[in-house]
User: Fold these one by one.
Assistant:
Number 1:
Amino acid sequence: MKVLVLGNSHVACLRIANQNRYQGKTHYEFIARGQGRGGLKGVDIRDGKLFHARPKQFNGWYADELSTFDAFVFTGSATPQQPDQAYSSALLRTWKTDLLTRHDALRLSSELVRQLNKPCIILPRPFPKAGQAEAMSYSTHKADTQWANDWIGEGITYARLPEETVVDRKAQTDPKYLLEDGSHGNELFGATCLNEVDKILKDP
């Protein structure tokens, strides 16, 4: 199986893990564009290839047909949180439509499923270290992930952070899975995520 991983600086831990730790049989390729340069903003899919209005800023070196890949993985995004259930159904529909256009990984995943009918997986970024953490527990993260998968439709899977990487009952990733900056995963984290991707693709 051949899989393309796209995203921002969070792609790095997956790429390094693929080189040094990953023992699976999937062939992974990687494209990363730092969030400071816009991440996946401005990236589109045209004629079966990735497109950017300023290709030298993103993927002028990348020319493979996307149809050669069996699946796609996006990383570096936050998992959408469930909206307040007190909102009206009309507002919730508008909120979901806006999410499909503003959340780049979700927008591109939707296009890949529509154009190529290939599965897409969206990996969440690690919980930041203490002091920067979002007010979220792992149980809330699991609930948000389940909610996202319930409404998003076939072909796209939001993956949960592997439970073994998270400090129990805290919105914080275990430091042994993080780089010194406390917000990016390290090689061990990347290998764990690649194994999770393999499990999802084997048993979607």
Number 2:
Amino acid sequence: MMFGAVLGGRLADRIGRRTVILSSVVFYSLFSLAAAASPNVEWLGVFRILTGIGLQAMTGVLLVFVSEMYPHLRGRYQAILLGLGCIGVSLVAGISSLLVPLGPGMWRWVIGVGALGVVGCILGLRILPESVRWQVDNGRTVQAERLVNRLEAKARLKIGGALPDPVVAQETAPGVLGDLFTRRYLGRLVVLSICMICFILLNYGFNGWVATLLVERGLPNAEALRIAFSISLASVPGAFLAYPVIDRFERRAVGAVSMVVVALSLLIFAFAPNATVMVASGFVLTARKDAQCSAVQVQWVTPLWSFSMYSSATN
């Protein structure tokens, strides 16, 4: 995934956000299907690595695409994006709780669900435009103006009148990757890197391994999967929880509060005396974790990502 993020960003800078997003979806869908058909554990590892490359290439570029196309409300739109994406977390957890107990080979069907991303790619070919900002930065002014005119025409029909005059943003000097390590950005880079490393560790460590950890604590496999599914249901409301506050309150405050709640929930979950407390703390943990992700990535991570990967400073 780390390699996919860097590769996806570089490719998106060269060939466009839309192309990388859609091609990455096809890439990880095909290798999800290949992983489901793996003949042995070695090939499973290879196919899962390739799946991770495609997945993160798509995710990183998609976040920047939203920031570029909806800069004034990027907090709310990224919260919506994260919330819809988290439906997949609950979906896979639910499928796992139903299929895995049926037999030793049913895990293949769970992994194969990832191949359904091709359906989204087909829809994206019809409705996903190229980023206006990328088109302007790459000399495609005519295409950018054509897209803006089409979007403005739809907006006029929606509001039933003329649009307000556009506000011309102050141009910023092009940035380079090395600027991230200057005094102005280095502190933010270090803090946010630590935050996102811990978030990824928690996200993939907790969500991906919670059922296994519960089995090791003595719970039957079927019950552990049901608890994991119950906890995963918090992902969707947790992400949407950021929607009403992300553009109203200071994002670092929202992120800090969420981090404290996540830390307390982790401690309660680790020493929970029974399944009820375990599910309750896990539910709160998952909900606040995704709200925290929205706040942190919208305020700083996406702008810094844009700055470093696409060589242009984002306000």
Number 3:
Amino acid sequence: MKSTSRRSFLRGVGGSALALPSLESLAAAPVKVPAQRLAFFYVPIGVVRRSFFPGEAAAKIPKFTSSQKELAKKDLPTGLHPLELTPTMQPLAGLKKKITLITGLDRTFQHGTDVHAQCASCFLSSAPPHTIKTSALPLDRTFDHIVGDAIGAQTPFRTLELSCNSHRDNLESIHFDNISWYGTDHVAPSIRDPRKAYHRLFGTKEIKAYRNITDLVLKDAHSMQRTLGSSDRDKFDEYFDSIRTIEEQIDKLEKMKGELAQVTLEEPTAAHLPRGAYIRLMGDLMVTALQTGLTNVASFMVGPERWNTPFLYEGLFDKPRSHHGMSHNQNKFVEDLEKLDQFHMEQFAYLASRMDGILEADGSTLLDNTIFTYGSGLGDGATHQYNNLPIIVAGSGGGNLATGSHLACPDGTPLANLWLTQAQALGLQRNRFADSAATLKELQKS
């Protein structure tokens, strides 16, 4: 059978810039080891600890404090433990063997700034306090860009930054609304509009072009049926069905925006857009970019820190609500906050499951070859604590990280120890990152 290269195939679809997943039938060379990927799913304002962390179900609901506070950790022995799925983690039940809960990781709070300012902006930086002389924040080049320099150099997008903050009322500085930074005071702007993300990723400039692009490619693919194996035909169908679904979701969301714009609302129009649909749509774009090799490194920010502008969490509340506002009164809103934490976990589980359903050329899944980290810069939204952050890692980066357990770290373990561990798992020759002290050896496979 004559082999056909991906480049030749793309030339044959009328010059459209739609990326393709790797296909065995189109490969001119033997199947190679799948690329390793890195992705982050950032949730703002921490979590309700009693529902997220094992062993804290009976803990008292904390009172609000406006300053950073460090709470005592539970007496759980350090090391690996069986993974207990707490109420907040229940959406991950189907992925239990491919996730790791990590507790006990801390970030050092640098005094002199607002307690929320460092949460998102320094989550992937973790520079040692007071080492950045040009900023009041311990903010340096973030971990996603360090890794992107190593494993993203050959991809169209060395890194990809996405955000689900659709609001335009900039109540806070950019530090509250970005986790990815090229360097101190040099933000890596995130894409927030699904249509713009679609345009940027797939290179389509005209509406008619991208509305018809999948039909054009499928028509060309149909003529190649005799050269495609059965598994590749299935992969084509799955891939282009997902692209069509993304296009339909974008259309629905934009139609809703137009309708809302005609109505007088107390809150901004964006507050009334269905939150889950928006997050999943942006997430689908991220997964597709990772699947097709458009990027190997992506950061995904669910929402901004502290902004009190509300969002509509469909299925949870009957009107838009402020996550930050509720977090400051856990005694009154604890059950609503627990629902919101599980809602965010459902979105993370949806994306991780999507990755796990995408087969790579060697039979592994996209999730198997990705390190996909869920996390927040606060351990609790009421206490504003920077210790014992909520961290979950899905995937193993090509089998280089252990999964399926709960790793309890010793008191004072830097969050940057996790980033250093991930860097080494992805092949980076580094002995230190930011304020790291060592790797998390329990996660490393020899």
Number 4:
Amino acid sequence: MIDLEPPRDLCVPVPGAGTFARIYGLAIRRLLAELLRLARALGEDSGLAAVGRVLSRARAEEPGALASLACLPTVGVLVRGLREPLVAATRRRYLNELAGTLALELAHAGLLAEPIVLADPPREIVALGAHRRARVLEGESRITILPSGEVTGAEQDSPYSPLIGGILFAQADNNPLRMLEAHPDKAGNAIDLGGRSLAEWTGALVRALDAIGAHLPAFRAEIDLVLRQMVPVGFFEEAHLSASYQEAIGTVYLSLHESPLTMAEAIVHEVSHNKINALLELDPIIENDRDERYASPVRPDPRPIHGVLLAVHAFLPVARLYEQMLEAGAGESAGEIEHHLARVRRLNAQGAEVLLAHGRPTAIGRGVFEEIEREVARARD
């Protein structure tokens, strides 16, 4: 039983309330417990026992370092993936990559006391916390991760560029689900700069984050709490694409767009998905059967009611962002912002109508439903 009240401000945070911080902390606590259980499983595997021993020692001597590992999406996505019923070969691959990722992170943190040998290693190991990537050399069937952080049988580089605070622009990604795409108009999330320079990407993302901070400071603080990496997925003249995954909390996938408003909206939207995904680590939110399908205001295909919830939850803070921009005095951009605000309010009203009519919330989910109802009514008045 989790110690959590139904959240009253998971969509649009109230300054100082700390609602999402509590949810995120509990979600990380769950993942950490799973990681420690995996450490015991690794300890029973002759090929991965060394990583299991390091994790067990870190639990006793460096619990803060272990908690930091649990916050990394490059670790979390593999741990959550291992919850699923996997065929033996896939499970072994996940465990091998998780062991390599943890070993490289622990080495760079100065916590690896003995070399880790991996047979049949993954093509590459990404250590987001250490800002490093190890690419296994062609033909190598075994690598050794040394306490110094060096990796024999592989070459290392850094595919990360700093944005603001602890948020990184990532040109490497270990999410095994990244090419699985639920949206009918997309074909996965391959890393792609879209012919644009690194400076164009990082500049656009920093400006978008700054705009969010200026107009939604409480939401901006939540971004710093949960978001670890932004992954580029191309540039398109006529469209903007973005994505996030329940298994990869801390990661957002974004295409580049020339409109600063579009970039800010996409970040708020995808971070909102990360927030509700953290709550889904603790509670299902909705009791509806996943096979039920309903019209969605933002998708051409009928969606589970869970998908409608994701859409409305993500667009409510976008609406508040545009409202705050207009209140601050938008100057020549006012007309464009008003247009976007009208669009988002319309989507929210349509989505809330479907959600509130057909969604069956859990006790925890009731708090989210009530906030959605209040926010939509506020915008209508």
